[in-house]
Amino acid sequence: MKKLIASLCILATLSCNSTSGGGYKKAEDAQDAGTLFIRSTLDGDFDKAAFYLLKDTTNQLLFDKQQANYKEMSGKEKSSQKAATIRPVAITTENDSTTLYKYYQTSNPADTTTLRIVRRQDTWLVDLKSVIKM
User: What is the DSSP letter of 94?
Assistant: First the structure.
């Protein structure tokens, strides 16, 4: 009986840990959050990308559009994105809770994008609204 209870406790602990945030690691800083978000979207891993997204209505709408655009891509375009390298152009700290991450990715080097990365409750998250404001 003790073994059964101990097994159930271990199982419950493991299941709680694995579902918390999908098992993704918290970004250590703004650059880490930006890189993890961008890499996830290039790879088509939108569950992981959502983990690094600032949650609000506008960001969710933009994120849903980004997912829809990815689904419409050809297999060749998706492969090109997965093979792409992220090239930071400038990472600029605006204040202690906001950083601008300007980058391009090698599958489309002519398109430079700037993301705003914000710190909320000790967590760095991507604010997609910054893309439409810049």
Answer: E
